[in-house]
Specification:
- The protein is an alpha+beta fold.
- It is 26% helix and 24% strand.
- The protein folds into four domains: 76 residues, Immunoglobulin-like (Sandwich); 224 residues, SGNH hydrolase (Rossmann fold, 3-Layer(aba) Sandwich), CATH 3.40.50; 59 residues, no CATH class; 108 residues, Immunoglobulin-like (Sandwich), CATH 2.60.40.
- A hairpin with a 2-residue loop joins β4 and β5.
- α4 crosses α10, α5 crosses α6 and α8 runs parallel beside α9.
- The longest helix is centred in the middle third of the chain and has 41 residues.
- It is globular.
- It starts with 28 loop residues before the first helix and ends with a helix.
- The relative contact order is 0.10.
Length: 541
């Protein structure tokens, strides 16, 4: 049985993963002679090779021990030095090695030297703050396509802001290395940065006055299970693994059916294109065969194995995450899946409960309010996390809203509060409880940030349910930290909702200028808004 990792070759821009090994008859005679001489009496020396993330221009995490690792000959002595600090180790029987350099204050540029049978010198290495930027297309979305790209890119001269782009790919087995290089943020290169990551890193670097490194690892259309470790899924959510197995088993029949139906589908598509052209509408998508679930880049655990596992245990401060669209329609499962991903990434990194900051899905005609609720409940049940609300920067007709700057700015607020201890408000109002007093629903909030505000007019977006469970549009007034909700004809309300729609029309903010999250008080199963994450903390210990 072949246990080598499966990758999607077309998804990986660097072809060196697939280089064919040389055979003797393909070697130049002189090279063959040299190889023979160097292997007499022992094994051919292998160059010491660190993980690709250690390279020129790298940003290392300040204030913590710095792991450095890679491969070499079994038994080869390895030495790593940085700014006068040196650590040594010996490669194990499989040729793997890892050392830890002492914690270092922010600064640079420094030179890092890695020595074994050969010596590598990496220049322009900085020490500052390192964040992983992961998720799907809204995290992947480049600065060049952001709403204010034309004005931002020419000004993006930030030599202390750097990005490392992890190549797209999936694997069935955990991988140990990746490819790529660190890129300095400049007007010539900033357009390729994740827009959300760029605005986040730009603001952090300005506020903290230290270098910031962004490790960008995201894939459009990817569900959370693709970023979750296989063992974690098998232990906590075996139904995800079983569903993948069923999809693999059903694929041959699905492909055969498509091949049978394809002539008819193409004929129908051609007719639909003609109709669309006559009506001046966009051309519909052409029929495509079903994707093979065994090679689909978005298969469970595939992205974790190829795009996250090779980064571990690189020292980081935390993670920013923008994903959820790929799990729309499976919101109930996401309530368990997303916290599992957070807890397992922390466990695998072994660097404590680092901040995990994520973005709630923006308003869009295809995005159910249930997925936003799943994200809200995930935040409520996990420790040291924050959720950025985007009800004011969405696009009803485009799943990729281009206003990325407010998203990055709000993530930076959360980082400053959670990671760096600043006493600032980092969240909009969050539903705490509701009490019914005759015809009134009295709704209380946390994170009121100096006070509740109805932005640009009367408060809107609330509905209220009577005893029969039917919801009606409601009026709402702010009274201190409470919102009083009433509706004509509803004398004994039983539940209240806010922004419960695919495209919510809402305007509740706090004085800090941050929008309130949509919510419903009638959460199925009686889910609690505990805001403490105690269960998550106990689990992580």
């Amino acid at each position: 049985m072949n246990n080598s990792p499966k990758r999607n070759r077309n998804d990986i821009p660097n072809p060196t993963y697939f280089e064919k090994p040389m055979t003797k008859n393909r070697l130049h005679p002189l090279l063959s002679t040299l190889l023979t001489l160097t292997t007499i009496g022992g094994t051919l020396w292998a160059d010491v090779k660190p993980n690709a993330i250690f390279s020129d221009g790298a940003v290392l995490q300040r204030g913590v021990a710095i792991p450095v690792w890679g491969t070499a000959d079994p038994g080869e002595k390895i030495q790593v030095s940085l700014d006068g600090q040196t650590a040594s180790t010996t490669a194990d029987s499989e040729g793997n090695w890892k050392i830890q350099l002492p914690a270092h204050d922010a600064g640079g540029p420094f030179e890092m030297k890695i020595s074994g049978n050969n010596t590598l010198n990496f220049s322009d290495v900085l020490i500052g703050e390192v964040w992983v930027c992961s998720g799907q297309s809204n995290m992947e979305w480049p600065l060049s396509k952001a709403a204010n790209a034309a004005s931002e890119i020419p000004a993006a001269d930030y030599p202390n802001l750097r990005g490392f782009l992890v190549p797209r790919g999936a694997s069935d087995e955990p991988e140990q290395n990746t490819t790529g290089k660190w890129v300095v943020c400049s007007p010539a290169r900033a357009g390729g940065f994740s827009a959300v990551g760029y605005f986040f890193g730009r603001d952090l670097s300005k506020e903290l006055g230290v270098p910031v490194g962004l490790i960008m690892s995201s894939v459009g259309g990817s569900p959370a299970e693709a970023w979750t470790r296989r063992d974690a899924l098998e232990e906590q959510m075996p139904e995800v693994v079983l569903e993948q197995k069923r999809a693999v088993a059903d694929y041959p029949a699905a492909l055969a059916k498509y091949q049978t139906d394809e002539p008819r589908l193409l004929q129908e598509w051609t007719a639909a294109c003609e109709q669309a052209k006559a009506a001046g509408q966009p051309e519909p998508r052409s029929p495509t065969p079903p994707q093979d679930p065994q090679t689909n880049i978005r298969r469970p655990s595939g992205l974790f194995n190829a795009m996250i596992r090779p980064l571990i245990p690189y020292a980081i401060r935390g993670v920013i995450w923008y994903q959820g669209e790929g799990n729309n329609g499976r919101a109930q499962a996401y309530q368990k899946l997303f916290p599992l991903l957070i807890l397992d990434w922390r466990a695998q990194w072994g660097q404590g409960d680092f901040p995990f900051l994520f973005v709630q899905i923006a308003p869009n005609k295809d995005m159910s309010p249930a997925i936003r609720e799943a994200q809200l409940l995930s935040w409520k049940s996990t420790h040291n996390t924050a959720m950025v609300v985007t009800t004011d920067v969405g696009d009803a007709n485009d799943i990729h809203p281009t206003r990325k700057e407010p998203v990055g700015q709000r993530l930076a607020f959360a980082a400053r509060a959670l990671a760096y201890g600043e006493k600032i408000e980092y969240s909009g109002p969050v539903f705490e409880s509701v009490r019914f007093d005759g015809p009134r629903a009295l709704v209380t909030f946390s994170h009121i940030g100096g006070g509740l505000v109805a932005k640009d007019g009367e408060l809107k977006g609330f509905t209220i349910a009577s005893a029969d469970g039917k919801f009606a549009p409601a009026s709402a007034l702010i009274e201190g930290s409470t919102v009083v909700v009433t509706a004509d004809g509803v004398t004994k309300p039983t539940a209240v909702r806010y922004g419960w729609a695919n495209v919510p029309d809402v305007n509740l903010f706090n004085e800090a200028g941050l929008p309130a999250s949509p919510f419903r008080s009638d959460v199925p199963g009686g889910a609690k808004f505990n805001n403490g994450g105690r269960a998550a903390r106990d689990f992580e210990r």
